[in-house]
């Protein structure tokens, strides 16, 4: 019996939890409609995929934070070793 589209997608995701040259990880999240539409507009304006736009934006924000940290300090260790927080609450990086 042939697999359904859902079954094929599940098999694909199981076979590829981490992939790519430097490793890739799947992110699955919901965002507001306004955010999704903004991402579409911005990526189109800059001529990149939504994925590339997000990757560039997150990398730039991370680089800005890392530039403020002193190597081998408690703050450095906390930033790089602290487990990710999970929450259903709506918040932004600025508070």
Describe the structure.
With 95 residues, the chain is mainly alpha-helical. The chain has a domain at 49-83. Helices cover 54% and strands 0% of the residues. The chain has helices at residues 5-15, 33-46, 50-67, 74-81. It is extended. The mean pLDDT is 85.
Index terms:
single chain; about 100 residues; mainly alpha; 4 helices
Layout of helices and strands:
Layout: H1 5-15, H2 33-46, H3 50-67, H4 74-81
Helix pairs in contact: 2-3
Short description:
The chain has helices at residues 5-15, 33-46, 50-67, 74-81.
Determine the mean pLDDT: 85
Distance between the termini: 52 Å
Number of helices: 4
Beta-strand content: under 5%
Tell me the series of helices and strands, N- to C-terminal. Answer: HHHH
Helix content: 40-55%
- Write down the overall geometry: extended
Rg over CA atoms: 18 Å
Give unreliable regions as ranges. none
Category from helices, strands and their pairing = mainly alpha
Biggest sheet overview: none
Instruction: State the total count of DSSP E strands.
Output: 0
């Amino acid at each position: 019996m042939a697999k359904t589209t859902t079954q094929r997608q599940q098999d694909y995701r199981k076979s590829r939890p981490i992939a790519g040259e430097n490793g890739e990880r799947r992110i699955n999240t919901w965002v507001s409609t306004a955010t999704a539409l903004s991402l579409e507009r911005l990526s189109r304006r800059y001529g990149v995929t939504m994925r590339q736009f997000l990757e560039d934006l997150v990398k730039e924000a991370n680089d800005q934070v890392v530039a403020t940290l002193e190597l081998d300090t408690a703050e450095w260790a906390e930033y790089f070793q602290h487990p990710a927080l999970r929450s259903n609450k709506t918040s932004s990086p600025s508070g």
